[in-house]
């Protein structure tokens, strides 16, 4: 029987290994897409707007864990690059809603497709069918972990 202390030690080891593997996988996925000279913060904002839809700079700052002034600079640079636009909030004209431009939506979709295709090819090439089933099971478990509070 595994003691609480042993379980904690195992979890710590798995957590460290998982963090390392996910970091390497994330870097490999980023290498598959070409977003030019955009910073990680800019890419995060584009990704969030794509997933969650338009939002205010304050909403984005809160979601990304940065100060509103920092988010303002990030949004300004994305707007200058033609990737986001600002429109009056229909519910509150004092606020501005930030959304992706058509060019940004297309770039995000294209780059997501490139990363997806790369990952699919690697999974097909590197894993046997039984291993792919184990990865599918691990994804389900990791989804639970990601959604835990």
What labels would you give this structure?
149 residues; mainly alpha; two-stranded antiparallel ribbon; 6 helices; 72% helix; globular
Structural overview:
With 149 residues, the chain is mainly alpha-helical. The chain has helices at residues 4-32, 40-52, 57-64, 68-80, 102-126, 129-147; strands at residues 84-88, 96-100. A two-stranded antiparallel ribbon has the order 1-2. It is globular, with a radius of gyration of 20 Å. The model has no long low-confidence stretch (mean pLDDT 92).
List the helices and strands and how they pair.
Layout: H1 4-32, H2 40-52, H3 57-64, H4 68-80, E1 84-88, E2 96-100, H5 102-126, H6 129-147
Antiparallel strand pairs: 1-2
Helix pairs in contact: 1-5, 3-4
